[in-house]
Amino acid sequence: MSAGASATGTNAIAIGTNSNAPGSRSIAIGVDTIASGHNAVALGTGSVANRDNTVSVGRHGNERQIVHVARGTQGTDAVNVDQLNLAMSNATAYTNQRIGDLQQSITDTARDAYSGVAAATALTMIPDVDRDKVLSIGVGGAVYKGHRAVALGGTARISDNLKVRAGVAMSAGGNTVGVGMSWQW
C-alpha cells in the first residue's frame, strides 16, 4: 500500500498513491486508481473499474491501448487487430464473391428472359399458311433488348377444318420448340 491507498472492500488490494479499492475482491494498482466494481481490476494511473468482473486500463476520456496481445485461441480470448483485420478481409471477400455470384445470376436470368422474348416473337413472325394452300414453311427473326433470335417453322392444312403448326427458335438463351393445332368451322 502507498500514501492515501485504501482497500476497504472485502479481500481488496490497493497499491499506489490515492488508489482506492472499495469493491469486494477488487484490485486497484496505480496512482489515483479506483476499483469500485466487485471482482474488478483497475491497472495504471487514473484507471477506473466501476463495473463488476471487469479489468480497466483507463477511464472515460483517458483510454489506453493494450499492446503486444497474442492471437486469441479460445472463444473467450481477446482478439488482436491482425485477427480482426483478417476476419474483416475474409468477410469482405466472401460478401464480394456472393454479390458477384448474384450479379452473374441476374445477368444470366436477364439474358435468358430477353432471349426467350426474342425467340417467342420470332416464332410468331412466321407467316401462316394461306387459305388456298396446304403447306407453308417460313422463317422469322426478332430482337428484344439487344438479344436476337431466329425461328424456322411451318404450317400444314390437314383438312378444311384442321391446321397443324410447328416451329423451332434459336437464341443465346437456348432453343425453343413449339407445336400447335387448330380446328376451324
From TrEMBL:
Domain Trimeric autotransporter adhesin YadA-like C-terminal membrane anchor span(s) in chain numbering = 127-185
The listed locations are:
Cell outer membrane; Cell surface
Q: Where is the Trimeric autotransporter adhesin YadA-like stalk domain?
A: 65-104
Q: Name any Gene Ontology BP term.
A: protein transport
Q: Which SUPFAM superfamilies match?
A: Adhesin YadA, collagen-binding domain, Pili subunits
Q: What Gene3D superfamilies does this protein map onto?
A: GSPII I/J protein-like, Serralysin-like metalloprotease, C-terminal
Q: Where is the Trimeric autotransporter adhesin YadA-like head domain?
A: 7-30, 35-58
Q: GO cellular component annotations, sorted alphabetically? A: cell outer membrane; cell surface
Provide this UniProt record's keywords sorted from A to Z.
Answer: Cell outer membrane, Membrane, Protein transport, Signal, Transmembrane, Transmembrane beta strand, Transport
Q: Signal peptide: which range, if any?
A: none
Q: What Pfam families does the annotation carry?
A: YadA_anchor, YadA_head, YadA_stalk
Family designation: Belongs to the autotransporter-2 (AT-2) (TC 1.B.40) family.
Name under which the protein is recorded: Coiled stalk of trimeric autotransporter adhesin family protein
Q: The organism's lineage?
A: Bacteria, Pseudomonadati, Pseudomonadota, Betaproteobacteria, Burkholderiales
